[in-house]
Design a protein that fits this description.
With 558 residues, the protein is mainly beta. Helices cover 4% and strands 41% of the residues. The protein is built from two helices and 41 strands. The longest helix is centred in the first third of the chain and has 18 residues, at 2-19. The radius of gyration is 32 Å and the shape is elongated. Mean pLDDT is 91; it is low at 1-32.
Length: 558
């Protein structure tokens, strides 16, 4: 009885309370525009062109480029616009009718938008072929003077870092697609000793930008490279672009300043322009041409090319020098050491002045052969054998060693090696590893390193090579090694603070070529060079069967 009374009282109370408050009416939120954009592609699925609502919200005009692809001279015709695939970007719970699939964008198409509250409105959709309105200079250089312009887009200036008078010169310039330039530095020799104004007119004939080319000596940063200055100069396929038809045997690069020389065993060396990557010619190596004789090459800071054989497979260890691209190889070193040596070697300095040459002795643990050149004279045919310690496994066939000095035998040096799989900083006085990065996967091979000083900072570059048809290790890393404070961590996980730049991984190796070619020998090379004026540092790298690549860095205070 009590329970029934309690229930009755609660029902009365609930009825009373419910009658005191009207419930909120749940309505859908009001649409903004309902439709935000429409994207069109050609019938074959190529292209992607998007138009947005006009300011008065009654029309969408989809701009179609005059040429497609925009870098080509393939003119878009109205016939191509008569059947285009279209998709709409709609707000939630908004519908469009008739249903979109194909539209004739040469006509005005009326569509109806029904929003979340069932309100309807009509808009017109059409296409319009437009010429480009972009009028930019994207790259500028004077090849005959060896000058590259530094473009400050915000100020519309192009700085030529030059000291002394310049001869009138023709230029190379990269513009926005289908833009024109006046005067045209590609067809007219211009005098750049005073400011030169270049007017770039977009393809639409209306939009213009005026750039001023200035010869100047800009201020340098106090230290190191300018953040964000990395510029891809070229990426050339060894086979398709440079005509190196043999696989697996291109293993070394020699960066001479004006050229990059690629050494392919048992073949003439190909040399390319160091700024553009264009093939310029070949070097007939004559009597030293052979699978085991011209095995590897590099260059000193004065542009002398050094070539070595593989010992003891080819007998005593030999090193030849090329003092120019047209000279004949001259024997410089011959040493019958009876040890495996010659897959890699490095030089710091110049054989015309002072230099330290280092080559790892392979399958011997942690031993290095070291030659010195003083005043242009080789001290001895017989190298000093340096025994180092600190690696857990040492190395076998893949290793490279570079000194940080061209004169000081106690200077620190860097070792990139396989088997131990660490990148090591070695104390040159004790020849013991002082610091190293965390070991890399045994699936990766590091076998090339170089070092240079640039704008008061020390930089080391090393590679990781992929020797399989799977995985993604083809990579190059640039590290600031001015001091060892940040020399720790793991390159793979991005925890090494010394890294200032890295190449996009798995893009330039042999497995990225179509069709892919596995880098069976796991070889590649790296090189750093500094311009004579000290404003630019150049990084070159090569993956066997893949690409040779050039990057430019600068230290200009923008």
């Amino acid at each position: 009885m009590r329970n029934n009374k309690f229930i009755a009282i609660m029902l009365v109370l609930l009825t009373f309370l419910g009658g005191c408050h009207e419930p909120d009416e749940l309505l859908p939120s009001v649409s903004r525009d309902g439709i935000n954009s429409i994207t069109a592609t050609f019938e074959d699925g190529t292209g992607q062109f998007t138009g947005y609502l006009s300011e008065d919200n009654d029309e969408i005009v989809i701009p179609i480029p005059y040429f497609f692809p925009e870098s080509s001279d393939n003119q878009v015709t109205e016939e191509m616009l008569k059947r285009m695939r279209v998709t709409a970007n709609l707000d939630d719970n908004v519908v469009v009718s008739p249903a979109l699939l194909y539209l004739d964008l040469t006509q005005e198409n009326t569509i109806t938008i029904t929003d979340q509250v069932k309100a309807q409105r009509q808009i017109i959709v059409k296409g319009e072929i437009r010429k480009s309105s972009e009028s930019l200079i994207k790259d500028f250089s004077l090849p005959s003077l060896g000058l590259s312009g530094v473009i400050n887009e915000a100020a519309k200036t192009i700085s030529l870092v030059a000291i002394g008078d310049l001869e009138p010169a023709m230029g190379n310039v990269t513009l926005s697609y289908h833009a024109s330039i006046s005067p045209d530095p590609r067809t007219t020799e211009l005098d750049y000793n005073s400011d030169v104004e270049l007017t770039v007119t977009a393809h639409d004939g209306v939009t213009q930008n005026v750039y001023t080319v200035k010869k100047e000596v800009p201020e340098k940063l106090a230290y190191g490279i300018r953040t964000g200055s990395a510029k891809l100069m070229f990426a050339k396929k060894l086979k398709a672009d440079l005509g190196i038809t043999v696989d697996h045997l291109t293993g070394g690069i020699a960066a001479t300043g004006d050229h990059v020389v690629l050494n392919t065993r048992n073949a003439s060396s190909v040399y390319i322009d160091a700024k553009t990557g264009e093939k310029l010619g070949e070097i007939d190596l004559g009597a030293i041409t052979g699978s085991l004789t011209n095995f590897y090459s590099t260059a000193d800071v004065d542009g002398n090319v050094l070539i070595c054989n593989l010992a003891p497979n080819a007998g005593s260890f030999k090193m030849w020098k090329l003092t120019s691209l047209t000279s004949t190889p001259e024997l410089m070193i011959e040493w019958d050491g009876g040890v495996p040596i010659g897959r890699k070697f490095s030089i710091q300095g110049s054989i015309d002045g002072d230099a330290i040459i280092t080559a790892p002795i392979l399958a011997a643990g942690q031993q290095i052969a070291r030659w010195t050149v003083v005043g242009g004279v080789l001290n001895s045919q017989t190298p000093e054998i340096v025994s180092m310690s600190g690696l857990t496994k040492g190395w076998t066939t893949n290793a490279d060693v570079v000194s940080t000095s061209n004169t000081d035998l106690t200077a620190d040096y860097f070792v990139a090696s396989y088997s131990d799989n660490t990148f090591a900083w070695v104390d040159g006085a004790s020849n013991t590893v002082s610091k190293s990065l965390e070991p890399i996967s045994a699936n990766y091979i590091q076998n090339a390193v170089d070092y240079t000083m640039f704008n008061n900072a020390g930089y080391a570059v090393l590679n990781w090579v992929n020797s399989f048809s799977w995985g993604s290790s083809d990579a190059v890393w640039l590290l600031d090694v001015s001091n060892d404070a940040n020399f720790s961590g793991n390159l793979e996980t991005g925890t090494c603070d010394a890294v200032v730049w890295e190449a996009e991984r798995n893009v330039y190796g042999g497995k990225s070529i179509d069709p892919p070619v596995v880098n069976a020998n796991g070889t590649g090379d790296v090189a750093l060079r500094v311009s004579e004026d000290g404003y630019y540092m150049y990084l070159y790298f090569m993956f066997t069967n893949g690409y040779v690549v050039g990057y430019q860095f600068d230290c200009i205070d923008m």
